[in-house]
Amino acid sequence: MRDARIAPASRAASEFGSVALVLQGGGALGAYQAGVYERLLAAGIEPTWIAGISIGAINSAIIAGNPREQRLARLREFWELVSGSATGAPIYWSGAPMVDTVRAWVNQLAAERAFTQGVAGFFTPRVPPPYLLWNGGGATSYYDTAPLRATLERLVDFDRINARETRLSVGAVNVRTGNFAYFDNTVDRIRPEHIMASGALPPGFDAVEIDGEQYWDGGMVSNTPLEWVLSNGTGLDTLVWQVDLWSAHGELPRDLASVATRMKEIQYSSRTRSATDSLRKVKKLRSTLCELLDMIPADVAASPQARALAAAADPALYNIVELIYRSATYEGQYKDVEFSRRTMNEHWQAGHADADATLAHEEILRLPSSDNNPAVFDFLTKPAQPLKRPS
């Protein structure tokens, strides 16, 4: 059930009763999502529901955990913090022009710096390292995420999140059972642990304990919360902005390094398109079920069987707007741990550009017809038109 305190959709998307922002995991690539959000905000589109995995959960918490007029500034503060230097050393090559070969080398150095020195406000290497420790505790991860806790406590107002002004959902996987779990502020009281659990990717980060259970990064099972949003919706017509950081489509690998990159892209893209196709078929069945229930006699509608079917029915209309980050040719297998300031700003600007290109198509703000529900839009890959899905 939708909590009455969740705010209505923005005026810019007034045909919809709800606006959902769905943020995939992808580490340093997450600045792209911040850029997208900035342009949505400028267009007057404010999400009423934010769902995230891993870095998407961190971005989600920062947005939901601040008043509207401070959200963008807090996002910028976070991304400038983590793209600074963990040791205070200067950040080189911040603006110098470079050919792709040199840029690939520089990005690799930046990623190696994160591996060896950590990321400011996010994680630090364990000292002593885990292989010198006894079982348990720090012996199960290479990095300590205490800095992330401090960052979240400083940048996020968890009382605001739990006041449910904006709905927030974050996903993680139970280490003991292997089951996926969502923590949602309409049901759970969200704490820093929930956000940290969603991004606790092993063996880099240790599992996070929540209510006696240990949780790892939700991206190990599913790296996008789209299914959660479509399956646990409010019953309102919903405009979904799905902002992904990994593309399922890519070039054939040319060497072992590009093989590793391609493997990562396929693994973490969570088969976005095929998942959307499957969800569309399910949504069509749930919509058809609504139509069927309207046709049956009142005495049949009152039966336990009909009531069970009614609980599964969903009359809501959905537009799903897909924005998927497209990596530059010089970004390699460690692009998700390359936190340099220059690259962060480029990711942010890429989010600007893709959001602006998509917002130029006014049809995304119009309700879809019932026979094309949900309508799925992707203007950033060819063909540049709404994707027609099989029934």
Automatic annotation (TrEMBL):
| Source species taxonomy | Bacteria, Pseudomonadati, Pseudomonadota, Betaproteobacteria, Burkholderiales
User: Where along the chain is the active site annotated?
Assistant: S54 (nucleophile), D217 (proton acceptor)
| Residue ranges of the motif DGA/G | 217-219
Motif GXSXG, per the record, lies over 52-56
Species this protein is from? Duganella callida
All copies of domain PNPLA, residue ranges: 21-230
What's in the keyword line of the UniProt record? Hydrolase, Lipid degradation, Lipid metabolism
Q: Which domain of life is it from?
A: Bacteria
Q: Which GO terms describe its biological process?
A: lipid catabolic process
Where is the motif GXGXXG annotated in this sequence? 25-30
Protein name per UniProt: Patatin-like phospholipase family protein
Gene Ontology MF: a single term = hydrolase activity
Q: Which Gene3D superfamilies match?
A: Cytosolic phospholipase A2 catalytic domain (3.40.1090.10)
